[in-house]
Write a structure and sequence with these properties.
The structure holds 2 protein chains of 2 kinds.
Chain A (H helix, E strand, L loop, with lengths): L2 H40 L1 E3 L6 E3 L3 H7 L2 H32 L6 H13 L2 H11 L6 H8 L14 H25 L4 H9 L4 H12 L1 H16 L3 H7 L10 H11 L3 H25 L11
Antiparallel strand pairs in A: 1-2
Helix pairs in contact in A: 1-13, 2-13, 3-7, 3-10, 4-7, 5-11, 7-10, 10-13, 12-13
Chain B lengths: L6 H4 L3 E7 L7 H15 L3 E7 L3 H13 L6 E2 L6 H6 L7 H6 L2 H4 L2 H4 L3 E2 L2 E2 L2 E2 L5 E6 H6 L9 H11 L1 E3 L2 E9 L4 H11 L5 E2 L2 E2 L4 H15 L9 H9 L3 E7 L3 H7 L4 E4 L9 E2 L4 E4 L5 H14 L2 H11 L6 H5 L1 H9 L2 H8 L3 E2 L7 H16 L5 H25 L1
Parallel strand pairs in B: 1-2, 1-3, 9-12, 14-16
Antiparallel strand pairs in B: 3-15, 4-5, 6-15, 7-12, 7-13, 8-9, 10-11
Helix pairs in contact in B: 10-11, 19-20
The chains are: A mainly alpha, B alpha/beta.
């Protein structure tokens, strides 16, 4: 290799590092360092507001294994993810397909369905507390109108978490819809036209043409949705504070409770690490199952 | 002597931050900021910056976080249960001597000041003591032909049943709602009414027969369909004002708002008794940070003293329903007139004679959440009364031991 080529390569490397440096600094300061610190803290007795820390070894993790509420919270988090992600993506897909036409006024519909995404989550949470109110809430009024029984929603330990799932679908499906709409535009229209000539039904075209063609985007949306889903904190904080009877307590809220309400930073750190493992496990599961079935355009 | 400064000019303005919560129903925020504006206008050399910090929990978290970075506010207003938590962080200025040379020990009502005392040392000036009381809708009582508020648990149950209104399966009005979010506070009142203070300095006693009976009584009322199994703090006050419940357990601090915002006549009564009357005190003292300059501490005391002086306590009590902390406030002519006009305000004061501090154990915050969860799960029918309280007691006592182990190390 000539000296010149090596020098150019080295220059390019330096430039690449220089360009990466700013974001690396931020990542290190606000992501990697906190992770390292939380691992360190999880092995200690750390009290919020007190600079002294005491070595505990694995005690916080042993507490976690014996903590009845931790397992319930983990179950709640899994329930939320496994319901809200598939349902909101399914709703988004149907919306996207329905709105992927060149008819007049479609832009208005698209904006309408995207609108919930733009509402600040705390405000949205407050609005849904009103919508779900057992006595005078419009949802119960509507149920009565349909001849269905009224529910206590956020006051009922069986319905509170599903109620938050329903509102999440409303909140997020518009966002997924927008991403999927963009993907639909890239599906070659001749495929559909050919299928139509062969008399293939709309449903079969959706299953056999549209979904495989947009599978990379769907996969992306599933990953993003999964990441979103374990981050729910705001709705729980605003709408239920984890209640009633811990039925809506999820990992992020439980970490907050332990760290800030109970000042137990050591245990909160152990929980945060459990969350990290939970999320990595979920993402791993998704990539091992769905990730393998993704079909990339131009792939052989 | 142009280069010698006059003392008045030499004194620099002392800036104080004061963090406070809003713990009841009503426009407390406006009232507090009004008081602070008045203080600032009348006190040269001190500027108090009022920081509204949300609920009691939020306020405590903000204070503790700022303690962690060594920059606490000068003063804050927490729930009295947090006393041991702040003492555990060595955060509080001991104001015993100042208070003794002042009129605090003579004029403050002992039971209120007592909630800021630990091992005979004083760590705050009581500002907004409260107890829960029984609010009732007098119009609903009249319609049902019930002349008086219930005085015993048995009467409470009968009254709640009589006042519950259903249209087929659909509930139109609850007989009773116990204000959610603070129902553990009310529960402690029930234990006291049953002859037990359900905690000691280093443990909780929720597994004692008196406590078990109290929760079993709640469960009976819920199962009979006359008491709501769950509610929220603001929501329960709104439900009462909207006529969705005939009776409500809520803080005395909500009195003025409930009384003036309800479209019906509001009655106030002692919480019904079993073996005795009993209540736990909510609200809290204004605490002063240890970690600040002497000038700030002095100014902070001046401010806390002003917020709790005779006139201000009388006015604050009338505006909110919180109990004035000074004997002299209650003797003021304005206050006497008010009590004639609003006899309901007297009820809470009289009930406070049967009250004590609320759950002043280390790790009280976790203790509260564990108890609330145990109560909720019991009322939702997920777990039996005795088992719920036994495991909650176990869990909390382990936690208290853990926190105390840490304090012994430090």
């Amino acid at each position: 290799m000539s000296q010149n080529l090596v020098r150019t390569q080295r220059k390019e490397m330096l430039l690449a590092y220089a360009l990466l440096l700013p974001s690396l600094v931020f990542l290190a300061a606000f992501t990697y360092w906190p992770i390292v610190r939380s691992i360190w803290f999880s092995l200690h007795d750390v009290l919020l507001g007190d600079p002294d820390i005491y070595w505990l070894g694995a005690e916080n993790y042993l507490r976690l294994l014996n903590d009845r509420l931790f397992w319930k919270v983990l179950g709640n988090t899994a329930f939320y993810t496994l319901t809200s992600v598939p349902l909101s993506i399914a709703a988004a897909l149907l919306l996207a397909v329905a709105l992927d036409s060149k008819l007049r006024g479609m832009a208005i519909y698209r904006s309408a369905f995207f609108y919930p995404v733009m509402i600040p989550s705390v405000a949205a949470g407050m609005v849904w507390v009103f919508l779900y109110a057992p006595g005078y809430g419009p949802i119960n009024e509507a149920l009565t109108g349909l001849g269905l029984p009224r529910l206590d929603w956020l006051y009922d330990s069986k319905w509170a978490l599903p109620a938050i799932v329903i509102m999440s679908i409303w909140k997020y499906s518009g966002y997924f819809m927008l991403i999927l709409l963009a993907a639909l535009k890239l599906v070659p229209s001749d495929l559909h036209e050919a299928a139509k000539l062969d008399g293939i039904s709309a449903w079969d075209r959706l299953i056999h043409i549209t979904i495989p063609m947009i599978s990379p985007t769907l996969y992306f949306v599933i990953i993003i949705g999964t990441l979103h889903s374990y981050q729910i904190f705001d709705y729980v904080y605003v709408m239920t504070q984890g209640g009633p009877a811990d039925s809506t307590n999820v990992l992020t809220f439980y970490i907050y409770q332990n760290g800030f309400q109970y000042q137990d930073i050591g245990y909160a750190s152990a929980l945060a690490n459990a969350l990290l493992i939970f999320v990595l496990g979920l993402i791993g599961l998704v990539s091992l199952t769905l990730g393998r079935r993704v079909h990339y355009l131009g792939e052989r | 002597m142009p280069h010698v400064l006059m003392p008045a000019h030499a004194a620099e303005t002392v800036k104080l931050q004061f963090m406070y919560p809003v713990g009841v129903s009503g426009d407390i925020n406006t009232i507090i900021s009004g008081m602070i504006d008045e203080f600032n206008a009348t006190h040269d050399g001190i500027v108090v910056e009022a920081i509204y910090a949300g609920s009691y929990d939020n306020t405590e978290q903000k204070v503790i976080t700022s303690l962690g970075v060594g920059e606490p506010p000068s003063l804050w207003l927490p729930i009295n249960s947090s006393l041991q938590t702040f003492l555990g962080l060595d955060a509080l200025e001991d104001i015993t001597e100042q208070a003794k040379s002042d009129d605090i020990y003579d004029d403050f009502i002992g039971g209120f000041l007592g909630t800021a005392i630990s091992n005979d040392r004083l760590y705050g000036l009581s500002f907004q003591p409260s107890t829960p009381v029984l609010y009732y809708n007098k119009d609903a009582f009249a319609q049902a032909g019930i002349p008086e508020a219930p005085e015993t648990w048995d009467q409470l149950f009968e009254t709640a049943k009589a006042l519950t209104v259903r249209d087929g399966d659909e509930l139109k009005r609850w007989g009773l709602i116990i204000g959610g979010g603070w129902h553990d506070w009310m529960f402690e009142g029930y234990c006291r009414q049953n002859g037990l203070v359900p905690w000691e300095q280093d443990k909780v006693l929720w597994d004692r027969p008196e406590s078990v009976e109290a929760l079993a009584f709640w469960k009976t009322m819920v199962d009979a369909g006359c008491m709501a199994p769950a509610s929220t703090w603001q929501g329960s006050a709104n439900d009462f004002m909207a006529g969705s419940t005939a009776m409500l357990y809520h803080s005395t601090g909500s009195l003025t708002n409930l009384r003036t915002s309800s479209p019906f006549e509001v009655g106030v009564a002692f919480m019904p008794k079993r073996k005795t009357w009993g209540a736990s005190q909510g609200g809290g003292p204004i605490m002063i940070a240890k970690n600040q300059s002497d000038a700030q501490k002095e100014a902070a005391y001046t401010f806390a003293r002003w917020m709790t002086n005779t006139e201000n306590q009388a006015a604050w009590s009338r505006a909110t329903g919180y109990l004035a902390v000074r004997k002299s406030s209650w003797e003021m002519p304005e206050m006497q007139e008010y009590l004639v006009e609003v006899p309901q305000a007297k009820v809470a004061m009289e009930q406070s004679a049967y009250s004590g501090a609320f759950l002043q154990v280390p790790a009280y915050s976790k203790a509260r959440e564990v108890l609330k969860s145990a109560i909720d799960r019991t009322l939702a029918g997920e777990v039996e009364v005795e088992a719920a309280l036994a495991s909650a007691t176990d869990e909390v006592n382990r936690e208290i031991a853990r926190v105390m182990r840490r304090q012994q190390r430090g």
